[in-house]
Amino acid sequence: MDKSLFQAKAAQNSSVYAGLQALVADEFENSRVSIRQMLQGLGIQHVDQTSSGKGVVDACRARKYDIVLCDFRLTGGKNGQQVLEELRTLQLLKPTNIFIIVSAETGRDVVMGIMESQPDEYLSKPFTQAVLARRLERQFVQTKALSTMKTLIAKEKFDQLIPLCVKHIEENGRYATWCKRNLVDAYLNAGASQELEHLCKTEIKQREVDWALLGLARLAMAQEQFPKAVSVLQKTIQQFPQTISAYDLLAQAYEAMGRLEEAQEILNDAIKISPRIHKRQKHMAAVSLANGDPQTALKASQQTVRLGINSVHESPDDYIQLVDIVAESAANVENSTDKKRLLAEAGQALSVVTKRFGNDDSVKLRKSLAESRFHASQGQMREAQQSLQVAKQIASELEGGLPQDLVVEYGKTLYSAGEKEQAETILASLVNDQATSDALKQQASDFLDEPISLGAKAQAKSLNKQGLNHYSNKAYQDAIHEFKTALELSPRHPGLNLNYVQTCLKLMEAQGSESHMVAECVESIQRLRHVTPAHKQYKRLNALKEYLVKHYKVMF
């Protein structure tokens, strides 16, 4: 921009900017002073400064700024991305705020993380006053035009937002695309599925854009049409590989369909692109754990904890999950130094839970339970029982007794500490309780099915897969061998036991009845006493049981 033209533009805007309040955050004083002078040169006279993330949060709590220019690197631990996330969570930003993240970072992981936090602007250092002026002017013009709509979004008044967005689009307004993107959220929240589908399909007819494809995928997810969501999201990623939210949504769709290996694969792709997102790493830890992959789960859990430090996302869940995963992983670490380091990491995590969240009785309970499970995993049964007794004492003193959402954790701890009968009784009661949420029922049921280590689960899963391949090829003897080997690792798993029974029955149909095989089928059925009518394998279990009674005259 020509200097004289810039000065004329600045003079024109100075009256508009004069009453505004700005905050500049940077770890280096010379940078803060330089940016402050730039803002004052544009007519913004009230400019506060801070060097730390805490300083930004405290300043925004004390004053409602119009502009915040926040460097990614700050003193005190918090970075600019974490500051923005915290300000939004605490609702310390006005809907019309302009929050700009400034950074000299060039690493893809940092830049992608910043962009995912969706600041109003991102400025790469170094920048000139003219560049800052253009960005601010663009934001102020947009804010002036959209202030009412932004306020309605902040207040979640979607019924009032929708007609304003529709009107702006129909008038071919300058911010029609912004309105369309925000209509997706508004229609979803309002339950207006037909309007959402019409909006997205109309746009796609003209040209395929990421937000419209994502809108259709989100609608399919909301309607639990998971195969449809998968199809749309695969297309979105193929055409727009940098649309990172599509990867996360696709992982959720795969998970909902029970396709956990594919969920892990797509999360791995997302993490390669943008690894610095707490929620994504936490999801990866949970999925890889369910897949029986302790190495990946450990890495993701460690990243989850690191990203949570100094962040609004920090949670006792992250530390307790890390302790459980370390307990699983340490058993497979041969190098004594590495094992010692891992065990020390678990101890440190438990210590942090006490220091950071120790005032919460339910957290104290969870910490004691996690400590008991950890000791049990290392064969320290006396210490495991001691921690369990502490947990029982805390639970007995809780108002209202043990919270339902901690029953699964409590049952797992009882089981690992050797109190298996009590554990099974508690978890079975949870599964049969009509008031229990589906998610908790599933967790309890999954543990009752397979109360074994991650490594054993992974081996059993692989053997089961091989057995199913043999079964589909009618190689029943080979399938039986794989299923029997898997059952040595995971004897209570319903799917495995029923696969074994079904294969034996198929073989006996072809070759005739064999008493030892019938006896083994009965034994497999009897191992599934924990399977209740609420279990997804219950109908199949009953059908095979009735078949054995009818055709082989067995008694149960």
From TrEMBL:
The modification 4-aspartylphosphate is found at D71. Keywords: Phosphoprotein, TPR repeat. GO terms for biological process: phosphorelay signal transduction system. SUPFAM superfamilies: CheY-like (SSF52172), TPR-like (SSF48452). Residues 21-140 form the Response regulatory domain. The keyword Acyltransferase does not apply. The keyword Nuclease does not apply. InterPro entries: CheY-like_superfamily, Sig_transdc_resp-reg_receiver, ST_Response_Regulator, TPR-like_helical_dom_sf, TPR_rpt. It holds the Pfam family TPR_12. CDD domains: REC_TPR (cd17589). TPR repeats lie at residues 244-277, 460-493. This is CheY-like chemotaxis protein. It comes from Marinomonas communis.
